[in-house]
Design brief:
By secondary structure, this protein is an alpha/beta fold. The chain is 41% helix and 13% strand. The protein has helices spanning 2-10, 24-34, 58-66, 85-96, 110-120, 138-145, 154-160, 180-187, 196-203, 207-220; strands at residues 16-18, 39-42, 70-72, 99-102, 124-127, 149-150, 194-195, 223-227, 230-233. The chain is globular and about 60 Å long.
């Protein structure tokens, strides 16, 4: 969901601001860059080459800059992060942005600190709904109960932020394939992960045909393997 939303917004020229952390932050930056968009990372560390945190996102931070984005920090260049510097930087993320979108967050999360800062700054707060049993969905669900804008598609964000000058996002047409086996499998997939065993049961095709078709469909960009042989539509 994060990839879909960021891709759609980035191609409209909307700048995505996040915190470079592992998880949703990293997906937000990466998806924006893959769509040719601009993104800004607000760090809980210094911006020195040996200080950027997490270390796993060192290359991502350099790519953000090379594509016209920025790294921002209120700390000295060589400052090493602390448990306090990350929550503190969230107010900057909220302050830079027209609105704060919470895609995933446990009941106690830094993302919720950002959302509360956004409310203090009279900015829009938006959230993606989750199933009621999802531990990482507790934060967004509670925000929606408190009045945050429910987001189920990119246009919900444009509407909430009153971006009337931005062209509305039109969903892409359904991909087509001349191969009936691929078509049958594609019709049984959604945006919710489905394991290969379930795909075989639903499609009533033999495992060899399903394995072969899934590999080809992934190469074509029709589907995505999330790991563990779980697939979704792209």
């Amino acid at each position: 969901i994060c990839e879909d939303l960021m891709n759609s917004l980035a191609v409209q020229g909307i700048v995505i601001v996040s915190g470079l952390a592992l998880g949703i932050d990293g997906v937000s930056h990466t998806s924006t860059l893959s769509a040719g968009g601009t993104t800004v990372a607000v760090l809980g560390s210094g911006i020195g080459r040996d200080s950027v945190y997490p270390v796993a996102h060192q290359q991502l931070s350099e790519k953000i800059i090379s594509q016209g984005g920025a790294l921002i920090s209120e700390y000295p260049p060589e400052f090493q992060p602390t448990q306090y510097s990350f929550p503190a930087r969230n107010r900057i993320i909220a302050g830079l942005s027209l609105g704060t979108l919470v895609i995933e967050a446990p009941a106690k999360s830094g993302a919720l600190i950002t959302a509360h800062c956004a409310l203090d700054y009279n900015r829009e707060v938006l959230a993606v709904p989750h199933t009621i049993t999802s531990p990482t969905g507790a934060g967004p669900n509670n925000l929606i109960k408190l009045g945050a804008k429910l987001v189920s598609e990119p246009n919900d964000i444009l509407e909430a932020l009153n971006l009337q000058s931005v062209k509305q996002i039109i969903p892409p047409n359904k991909p087509t394939t001349a191969n009936p086996t691929e078509e049958k499998i594609y019709n049984h997939l959604t945006k919710e992960p489905k394991n290969i065993d379930q795909i075989i049961l639903d499609s009533q095709l033999d495992s060899a045909a399903v394995n072969s078709a899934l590999a080809i469909m992934e190469i074509k960009g029709l589907i995505k393997n999330l790991g563990g042989m779980n697939y979704i539509k792209k």
